[in-house]
Amino acid sequence: EVQLVESGGGLVQPGGSLRLSCAASGFTFGNYWMNWVRQAPGKGPEWVANIRQDGTEKYYLDSVRGRFTISRDNAKNSLYVQMNSLRAEDTAVYYCVRVSLYNSGTRSALDVWGQGTVVTVSS
Amino acid sequence: AIQMTQSPSSLSASVGDRVTITCRASQGIRDDLGWYQQKPGKAPKLLIYAASSLESGVPSRFSGSGSGTDFTLTISSLQPEDFATYYCVQDYNYPWTFGQGTKVEIK
């Protein structure tokens, strides 16, 4: 069974740090782009960052660039995001999401989602 | 960033109804658009990719159309399990952006 399981969420004070992890199973992790997508309470999803299969390309939402760092360890089938200088507006459920490619790699979609881990930034 | 605007933000419908949700991009995005369904407390689920391609395992009552800036998700005959919130998302360029969502409620 294809599965993504996030961990590492919790309550952190503004300005603090947190590292989220995502354990992948049931597929060849190293063959896929991976993403973090978050969803604030009562809001729609928001794409946060993604990383190429070999880790050589990374893209970030402007509001997290310089504060968040996405990384992966293909030997451990794991995705990470290091979140520093956290703000109240970073409070959300954070999802680990796989990207699949279609039509000979010309199209993509967020096809597998984890169950999410909750991050709360509050004093 | 490309803005994705969905309409309506919510709708009430009955089982068996045909439902149409639209999504407009602030600039052309070819057909680099997906549709997702989300139920309370659950992660979003992929329904449609590349604007009109049905994801494997998704019922054929779901269909998508459009290209450029205007897109449509249609549910041909609404079923009880389809009451949920639907989001479009563009992956044409970064940052990938979601619409604000359309909540489909029971009439």
Structure description:
- The complex is a heterodimer of chains A (123) and B (107).
- With 123 residues, chain A is an all-beta fold.
- In chain A, 0% of the residues lie in helices and 54% in strands.
- Chain A has no helices and eleven strands.
- Chain A has strands at 3-7, 10-12, 18-25, 34-39, 45-51, 58-60, 68-73, 78-83, 92-102, 107-113, 117-121.
- The N and C termini of chain B lie far apart (36 Å).
- Chain B is 0% helix and 50% strand.
- Chain B has 107 residues and is mostly beta strands.
- The chains are: A mainly beta (123), B mainly beta (107).
- Chain A binds chain B through residues 44-47, 59-62, 95, 102-103, 107-111, 113-116, and chain B through 1, 31-32, 34, 36, 38, 43-46, 49-50, 53, 55, 87, 89, 91, 94-101.
DSSP strand tally of chain B:
11
Biggest β-sheet strands, sense, barrel of chain A: 7 strands, mixed
Helix/strand structural class of chain A: mainly beta
Rounded average pLDDT of chain B: 97
Structural class given helices, strands, pairing of chain B? mainly beta
User: Unreliable segments of chain A (pLDDT under 50, ≥5 consecutive)?
Assistant: none
Distance between the termini of chain B: 36 Å
**Cα shape of chain A:** globular
> What's the overall geometry of chain B?
globular
In whole angstroms, the N-to-C terminal distance of chain A is: 39 Å
Helix content of chain A: under 10%
Q: Work out the strand percent of chain A.
A: over 45%
Low-confidence stretches of chain B: none
* Count of helix runs of chain B: 0
